[in-house]
Write a structure and sequence with these properties.
The complex is a heterodimer of chains A (164) and B (718).
Chain A lengths: L1 E6 L2 E6 L7 H8 L18 E4 L2 E4 L12 E3 L1 H4 L7 H8 L9 H14 L5 H7 L9 H26 L1
Parallel strand pairs in A: 1-5
Antiparallel strand pairs in A: 1-2, 3-4, 3-5
Helix pairs in contact in A: 3-6
Chain B lengths: L9 H5 L6 E6 L8 H12 L12 E7 L4 E5 L8 H13 L6 E5 L17 H28 L7 E3 L2 E4 L2 E4 H6 L30 H5 L15 E5 L8 E6 L1 H4 L4 E6 L4 E5 L2 H10 L1 E5 L6 H7 L6 E8 L10 E7 L11 E7 L2 E6 L4 H12 L6 E5 L14 H12 L3 E4 L2 H6 L7 E9 L5 E10 L12 H6 L18 E8 L14 H18 L4 H7 L5 H17 L9 E10 L2 E12 L2 E11 L7 H20 L4 E3 L2 E3 L17 E6 L17 H13 L12
Parallel strand pairs in B: 3-4, 8-18, 16-17, 20-21, 24-27
Antiparallel strand pairs in B: 1-2, 2-3, 5-6, 6-7, 8-11, 9-12, 10-11, 13-21, 14-19, 15-16, 15-18, 19-20, 22-23, 23-24, 25-26
Helix pairs in contact in B: 3-4, 10-11, 14-18
Classes of the chains: A alpha+beta (164), B alpha+beta (718).
Chain lengths: 164, 718
Amino acid sequence: MRISFVLNNSDTEIDLTDDTTPLLWVIRDVLGLKGTKFGCGKAACGACTLVIDGEAVRSCLYPVKFAEGKQITTIEGLGTEENPHPIQQAWIEEIVPQCGYCQSGFMMATAALLEKHQSPTDDDIDKNITNICRCATYYRMRKAIHRAVELKGTEISETEPQKS
Amino acid sequence: MGGNKKKISRRRFLIRGGVGTLGVVAIGTYLFRNPIRRKILAVADSGESPYLGSGMEPMLWFEITKENKVVLHSPKVEMGQGTFTGLAQMAADELEVDMNQISVVHAASISGNLDSFATGGSTSISSLWQPLRELAATLREMLKQEAVKRLGFEASSIKVENGVIRVGDTELTYTEIAQGVSKWEVPKTPALKAIKNYKFIGKPIPRVDLNSKVFGDPIFGMDAEMPEMLYGAVVRPNKVGAKFISADVSKAQTMPDIVKIIEEEDFVGVVAKSFTAAERAKEAIDVTWEVTENWQTDDIREMVKVGKGKAFLLQKEGDNLKDDDNLIAMEFSSPIGAHAQLEPNGVLASVEGDKVTLKMATQVVALTRKEVAKRLDVDEEKVNIIPTYLGGGFGRRLHTPHAVQAAVMSKAVGKPVKYFFSRREEFQHDLFRPPTHHQLHGKLDDQGNIAFIQHDFSSGDVAIDAAMLPGFLHGVLGTDVGAIRGGFCHYSGIPNIRTVSWHVDLPFATSWWRSLGLLANTFAWESFMDELAIRAGKNPVAFRLAHIQDDEKGNRLKAVIKAAAKKANYKDKAVNGRAMGIAASTDAGTPCAQVAEVSVVNNEIKVHKVTCAMDPGLAINPDQIRAQCEGAIIMGMSASLYEKMELVDGELTPIIYGPYEMAQMKHAPKEIDVVLLQGSDKPGAVGEPPLGPIAAAIANAVFRITGNRLTQLPLSLT
C-alpha cells in the first residue's frame, strides 16, 4: 500500500505491506530518522512525540495509514545546528538534556504547545507537557519553554517590519 | 605512526587508521597491584572506588585529528551524569587545548581502555581526576619533546596554547608534530598545574553532548544500525520465578517476515525483518512455564522485616541500647522501585565467525564482554563492545546479559541482530530497587540530647550476588555493600550507636538503583531525627548540628545543613498552610542537606521549592553538578511520593508508565535553589548523594502541616 505525506517539508511516499505499522517505526527504520524515540509502545511516555498537522502525536501507537496526506515534523525537521528552532536554542541556553533520550519528544510536545499558546502559563505547561523524563530535567525544561517563547517573540518582531 | 619502546602494538594505531585520524597512545601510569582489596576497603569505608584499569597493556586514550583536535576515549560511559564534559575539561586543561578542540567518545573495548569495574557509584570523575590529568599532561609533554627535537630549541623557551606549540615566530600544531613522529618517548609523569591555573576546571562549561541531544542525533544504543540488520525478541515470563519448560513455536514459525525461531536451552528467541514482526511472533509462541508460587506484595512485605534473615552489626559505638520506658521507637518502610529509564535495554550484535561486535548501552563493558565471550566460546579480545550513549542508566545497566542472547541470535542467522526489551519486559524484568524495612530506637537524656540510637534495617539484595562484583566479596565483608549506603549513623556526636543490617533473599532480582540504600535509609534516619528533635523540644537544625562532631567529615556535614537552612530561610513551623522540612545525609563522602517547602491540598502533597546545599569537594563543572542536584531531587521526589511496584498473583505490576506513577512536569517544584560548597580540593561524588535527603525533607514538612508522621514510601495522606 502506498502512503504519501509531507515529512519535514519534503513530499514523502512509502510502500508498505502492513499499513497498521506504527508511524514511529516507519520514521525510524524505513525512513532512517532516529531522533524520534521508542520508550514504551503504549503512548504513555511521549518519547515518540511528533507534530502532525500542528498537534502533538505519540507515534508509537499511530498506524502509518493515518499519516496519509498529513504534515509531519520530527526533531530533525524542527531546526538544525546552523539554524536552530527557538525551542532548540532555548534548550541549549538552559543546558536542559542529561541522558537526552526523551528530549526530542519534549521539544516536539513543546512545539505543538507553542502553536496553540503563544505565551503559555505554567499551568498550560503542566497540562500539556505530560511526557516522562527519568533524569527529571523538568525544572530546566520549564525554564527553557519560557525562554523559547521569548526567543520566538524576538524572531517575530525581527521579521514583522518586513511584512508591513 | 609506529609504536614506542614499550611495545605499543600496531593494532591500536590501526583502529582509527581508516578514518583519517592519527593514533596517539598514552600509557596508563597508574596500575593497582591489588585492586580488589583496595576496592573492598574503599567501598566499605565510603562508597568511593578507584579507577580500575584492565592491566599492563597500553590503552588508547587520545587521538589527534588532522584538524588539530583531540579525541578523548572515555572508559566511563555517558548516561546523562555529565561525565564526558567533566573529563573533557580535565583533559583539555592539562593538554593545553581549547574546549572546542576536544571531543569525547566511548572507548571501544578493543581499544584496551576499559574499566574492569563499571560506570557507577558516582565515581567517574573522582576516580579519573588524578590519572586522566596525568595522562593528558604526559601527552602534552610528549608533544613538547618532539617539538623541541624538531625545532632544536630549549624546552623552556616554548609556549603551548590551544594545541599549538610556539617558539618565537615558529608554530607547530599538535597535528604537525604527531605526523612526523615514528617513535614516541614517554616521559616520567609531569607535575600537574595548580588548580587555580586551570581555565576550564571549575567553570560551568556547556555539556559536550548538548547539540547531539538537542538536534536528535542517533547516539543511543537503540539508534545503532548495521547493514542487513534484523530484529530479535526473546520470550520472557510474566510471573516471578517462572521456569521454562517447553515452547510451541509452530504458529510463530508461519508468521510474516519471520527469519528464524531460536530455541536454546535457556531461552527462546525470534529473529524477524522488523521490530513489530518480531514482537508479534514472540507473542504467538506458546510457552509452558512452571510456577511454584504466586507471590503477592504482602508475602514480600512479610519477608523484608527487621528480625528475619541474617543480621550483621555494621556500627558499634559505646554501649548497647537498654530497653527502658523512655525508649522512642519508630518503623519505616519503602516499596519495590523500578528503574523506568526511558531507553529500553537493548543491543545490536554481529557475530561473523569468531569476530563479535556489539553496539549497546551498558554500564559494564568488561563484564558484558566476558559473558558474551564465554557463551560464544571465543577469546575476550575477539569481542568488541562499542558503547553508545545511555538513554538513562541509574544502575539498571550494571548487568546487561541480554547481549549474550543477541549474540547467540546473530550467530544463528549469520546477520546482525538488534534486540531490545518491550516496556512490559522492562517493568517485569527490571533489577529492582529492593523494598526495605527499618526500625529505629532512640533515647534522649535529661538535656534533650540523644543518648542512644539504633538503626536496624532489612533490605533485599543490592550488591550480593551482583554479577559485577566478585562472589567472595560478600563473604569478606559479611554484608551488602549496596544496601548499607546511607544506613550508617552520621551523627558522630551521639555516644552510643548501633547499626544492624538484615538480609533476606527475595524471589525476584533486586539490584543497583541510583543511590542504592541511600534513599530509603535516609528517609528512615532523618524522619527519626526530626521526631527526636520535636520530642526534645528543639529546632531540628540546631538539634542536628549539636550531634555532629567537629572533625573534617562532621564540619562538612554541618556546613551543608547550615547553608541549606540559611538559604531557605528555614522556619520550624507552618505558615499559611506551607511548611518546611529539613534532612541531610552523607553519601560516598559527599554531604548534602535539603529543605523542602510543601503544602497539602485535599490530602495531596505538593512540593513548591527545594533548597539544596551540597559539598562534593572541588566542583569540576558547577552547572552540571547543579543539574544533577535538580534531577536527583525530582527523581527522589518521584520515588518518595508516587512510585511503587506491586506483586499480584505472581506478576510484578504495573507494566507501563502512568499506572507506574512518576513525577511529571506538573509535580516538579517551580523553584530549586542549589548551593555548592567546596570543602575539599579534590572532586567527590555528585550523581547520587543529592537523592538522599528529599524523602525525609518532604515528610518532615508534611508533619508540620498535618501532624501526621509518615513512615512509608511512597508518602501518602490517604
